[in-house]
């Protein structure tokens, strides 16, 4: 049976449409709560920038006066209580090299969905000549992160129960099916039975 050379890739309109969700974070109130908690403990910081992402908001902070980074790092639990973190914790990242800046990652009260269709409609993703590029996610700056499967001999997808591993695997398969000609793509399914 002769294969047709007139194969057309599926249209991304087959994917579910999405509405961009508005984030419901009161960043001003959270920022004030962080600085107030730090002041109560006798230290001083300034919030230099705020970046909202789909699952958490990053507050870039700078130490002021004699305050040291390690003093603020010890306040993670106090800050988590003060900002009423939904999962009970915040993460204070390592300092950014050559600066006095570090980040305080506060989980969002409500996570927003990241839709596969939004990735495939992204100009940067469409212009990528590598057909084995798959989406990884969005940065807090709203930039698309991708990875090239061609350069990955192995790919490990891990996480807690119900964290989205199967959904992410579905997204990878759908991305490949929507962007790659069948002749260039082979998908094998392997079952391990114990």
Q: What order do the helices and strands come in, and which of them pair?
A:
Blueprint: H1 27-40, E1 45-52, E2 56-63, H2 69-73, H3 76-82, E3 91-92, E4 101-107, H4 116-120, H5 123-126, E5 133-138, E6 144-148, H6 165-179
Antiparallel strand pairs: 1-2, 2-4, 3-4, 5-6
Instruction: Please state the average pLDDT score.
Output: 82
Order of helices and strands: HEEHHEEHHEEH
- The number of distinct helices, counting runs of at least 4 residues, comes to 6
Spatial order of the strands forming the largest sheet: 1-2-4-3
- At the fold tier of CATH, the topology name of the largest domain is Threonyl-tRNA Synthetase, Chain A, domain 2
For the largest beta-sheet, the strand count, sense and barrel status come to: 4 strands, antiparallel
Q: How is this structure best described in words?
A:
The chain is an alpha+beta fold and 194 residues long. The protein has 2 domains: 27-107, Threonyl-tRNA Synthetase, Chain A, domain 2 (2-Layer Sandwich); 113-184, no CATH class. The model has no long low-confidence stretch (mean pLDDT 82). The strands form 2 sheets. The chain has a 4-stranded antiparallel β-sheet with strand order 1-2-4-3. A two-stranded antiparallel sheet has the order 5-6. 13% of the residues are buried. The longest helix has 15 residues, at 165-179. It has helices at residues 27-40, 69-73, 76-82, 116-120, 123-126, 165-179, and strands at residues 45-52, 56-63, 91-92, 101-107, 133-138, 144-148. It is built from 6 helices and 6 strands.
């Amino acid at each position: 049976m002769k294969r047709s050379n007139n194969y057309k890739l599926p249209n991304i309109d087959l994917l579910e449409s999405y509405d961009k969700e508005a984030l419901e974070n009161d960043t001003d109130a959270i920022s004030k709560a962080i600085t107030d908690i730090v002041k109560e403990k006798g230290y001083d910081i300034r919030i230099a920038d705020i970046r909202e992402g789909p699952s958490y908001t990053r507050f870039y902070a700078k130490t002021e006066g004699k305050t040291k980074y390690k003093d603020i790092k010890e306040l993670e639990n106090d800050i988590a209580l003060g900002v009423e973190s939904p999962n009970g914790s915040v993460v204070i990242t390592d300092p950014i090299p050559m600066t006095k800046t570090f980040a305080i990652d506060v989980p969002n009260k409500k996570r927003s969905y990241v839709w596969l269709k939004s990735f495939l409609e992204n100009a940067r993703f469409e212009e990528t000549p590598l057909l084995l590029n798959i989406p990884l996610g969005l940065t807090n700056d709203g930039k698309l992160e991708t990875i090239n499967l061609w350069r990955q001999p192995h790919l490990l997808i891990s996480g807690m129960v119900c964290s989205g591993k199967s959904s992410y695997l579905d997204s990878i398969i759908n991305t490949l099916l929507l962007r790659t000609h069948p002749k260039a793509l082979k998908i094998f399914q392997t079952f391990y039975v114990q």
